[in-house]
Amino acid sequence: MPYYVSMIRSAAQRALLDGPFDTHEAALAAVPAARRWASERDAWTDFDAFGTCQIAGPVPVPLMRRDDGDVIDRIADGLRLRGFRVDIDYHYHHIYVDDAQQVRFEVAIELGLETLIERLRS
Questions:
Q1: Per-residue b/e over 2-38, b at no fewer than 16 CB within 10 Å?
Q2: How much is the pLDDT for 95?
Q3: What Cα–Cα distance (Å) separates residue 16 from each residue in 66, 77, 84, 114?
Q4: Which of 24, 50, 52, 92 is deepest in the core (most CB within 10 A)?
Q5: DSSP codes of every residue in 53-64
Q6: If you write DSSP's letter for every residue of 87-107 in order, what string do you get?
Q7: How far apart are CA 119 and CA 61, in angstroms?
């Protein structure tokens, strides 16, 4: 069974950050980099637990291995450049805009930056 780097915020909020790894030692060695990666994206990760786990069967693609994380970062940067206040919740996959609106990652990616801005301003 492969190993993964995991992060736990609460019983309901868990995430796989990196993997799969063939050995537990390789997964343990990846924990510091995964912690730094998560901390750069979410300041609340200082309060989260990081470690390793094994999972049998199909698993979602770990967050560090997903292409949409980079897309979301670019969309958030574009919103900030246009004057929006933006927070990103990588656990629930939402972008929070101006403390009032939330947009799921999939919707933001599907709409693209310009269409998303039009909808937020309307």
A1: ebbbbbeeeeeeebbbbbbbeeeebbeebbeebbebb
A2: 84
A3: 11, 24, 29, 31
A4: 52
A5: EE--S--PPPGG
A6: EEETTTTEEEETTTEEEEHHH
A7: 30
Cα–Cα distance list, 96 to 10, 42, 55, 78, 85 (Å)? 20, 13, 31, 14, 8
State the pTM of this model.
0.58
Number of H helices, E strands in the chain: 4, 6
Amino acid at 120: L
Q: Which two tokens stand for residue 80?
A: 């900030």
Tell me how crowded residue 39 is: count the other CB atoms within 10 A of its CB: 14
